[in-house]
Amino acid sequence: MAKPLRLSTQDAQFEAAFRARLHWSSQADEAIEQRVTDILFDVQKNGDAAVIQYTNRFDGLNAKSMEELTLDVNELKSAFDSLSADQKNALQEAAKRIRTYHQAQKKANGESWSYKDENDTLLGQKVTPLDRVGIYVPGGKAAYPSSVLMNAIPAHVAGVAEIIMVVPTPSKPGQTKGEKNPLVLAAAYVAGVSCIFTIGGAQAIGALAYGTKAVPAVDKITGPGNAYVASAKRRVFGKVGIDMIAGPSEILVLADASTPADWVAMDLFSQAEHDELAQSILLCPDASYIDQVQQSIDRLLPSMPRRDIIEASLNGRGALIQTRSMQEACDISNRIAPEHLEIASQNPHQWEPLLKHAGAIFLGAFTSESLGDYCAGPNHVLPTSGTARFSSPLGVYDFQKRSSIIEVSEAGAQILGRVASVLAHGEGLQAHARAAEMRIKRL
Questions:
Q1: Is 23 a residue of the active site?
Q2: Phi/psi zone of residue 216: left (φ > 0), alpha (ψ -120 to 50 degrees), beta?
Q3: CB within 8 A of 434, min separation 6: which ones?
Q4: 98 contacts 149 by C-beta, under 8 angstroms
């Protein structure tokens, strides 16, 4: 049975137990680090041949060339056409909402701007999209069309000209070809992906970062993956941009005992079912309500198809914590800085102003985290492992760059030149000073 750790903030040992339950090491195993280093070096040196070799080995395929691992827009459209009407409608509705949200995001703060000062000097910022990005979509244990939408649509809205997607298609026992999930390919079609390579792992990250004969080098790589993918992204950062190094999924529920206990239990399950290291935590001042949630867990868990994963997650990293008040629950939430934060309250807007750190905040009993995962509109690629203290959800801004614009007028040069000259001489950089002084009129 699943028995999340039961804690109370009034317990003398609460702090120690709380910290121990939160602890998760993002350090990859040394063997993985070394293996990733070898793979990246091989891909950088041998290109497509190395990509094919590792894809065949890890995904159980028998590809002879990169052509066999490359999908174009026509194949994506065929996958879309093969879907049921319900699947097509769901995909298009989710894509529409995600696109609308990210278009609003771009309009709000993603445009170029400038102004002139009192001396007619023009100052501003030019915002331009990246030329080419790579999106990694997991394809090992499950298919994730939602990840396609969440990574590709904001890039498309930002104006990225080329979106290259990589997704592994491991073979099943007895097969030499991987199975391509039509919903994933259809999502790529709806989201505007330019091209897909059916490769994954560290070799896919290396191919995107360094470029091969078949795979074009990109400017930035986004999307989640396993420990090998995370390690590879960490190592190619600097050669290309990356979105973040994602840890296990997390949910934190702040409850005032007004939401049905079954709903909260299932919301905790929704993250626990990702993997055994996922974390699900409930904060509530009502001990009897916490008892009800535990009873719901006991009753609902046996019917879950991913029961074993949920049970391992809740037993290993889950917690049901009784707080002194909702105010204290908010304070603890800020310490955790969770990826997903639900406020299961009759008046969520009372507590939202107190919450400073979270990847996404879900207000009210009807706002299940799963709606945000699939179709609400905001991005589901979120900071984990407490990084919401300084990081943001994936967005249009991740696919844009900013260039400063400076046009100094003749009048402005007379003032700025003197300022720059003094500071440059103070730093011992005479050429800097001289360049500024040459623009100053001599009486």
A1: no
A2: beta
A3: none
A4: yes
- In angstroms, the CA 283 to CA 252 distance is 7
Round to whole Å and give the CA distance between 128 and 139.
31
Burial (CB count within 10 angstroms: exposed 0-12, middle 13-18, buried 19+), residue 240: buried
The CATH homologous superfamily for domain 30-242 is Nitrogenase molybdenum iron protein domain (3.40.50.1980)
Same fold, 5-26+247-376 and 30-242: yes
> For the residues of 257-287, what is the DSSP string, one character each?
S-S-HHHHHHHHHHHHTT-TT-EEEEEES-H
Cα 410 to Cα 158: distance, rounded to the nearest angstrom: 36
Mean model confidence pLDDT for the chain? 95
pLDDT (tens digit per residue) in 278-301 = 999 999 999 999 999 999 999 999
Residue 393's pLDDT is: 97
For 132, the enclosing helix (H) or strand (E) is strand 132-136
Give the model's pLDDT for residue 24: 78
> Does the active-site annotation cover 340?
yes
Catalytic residue among 250, 273, 311, 339: 339
Under 8 Å between Cβ of 202 and 184: no
- The pLDDT, as a whole number, for residue 143 is 81
Structural domain spans, the chain: 5-26+247-376, 30-242, 408-437
For the chain, give the number of residues. 443
Q: What angle do CA 347, 350, 351 make, to 5 degrees?
A: 105
pTM across the whole model: 0.92
Per DSSP, helices labelled H in 140-226 are: 145-158, 182-191, 201-210
Strand order through the sheet with 70-71: 70-71, 195-197, 162-166, 132-136, 220-222, 241-242
Q: How many CB atoms lie within 10 A of CB 70?
A: 15
Biggest CA–CA distance in the chain, Å, is: 89
Rounded CA separation 194/164 (Å): 6
Marked catalytic residue, from 102, 340, 357, 380: 340
DSSP-based three-state secondary structure for 110: coil
Q: How far apart are CA 189 and CA 211, in angstroms?
A: 23
> To which CATH superfamily is domain 5-26+247-376 assigned?
Nitrogenase molybdenum iron protein domain (3.40.50.1980)
- CA–chain centroid gap for 287, Å, is 35
Within a 10 A sphere around the Cβ of 140, how many other Cβ atoms? 15
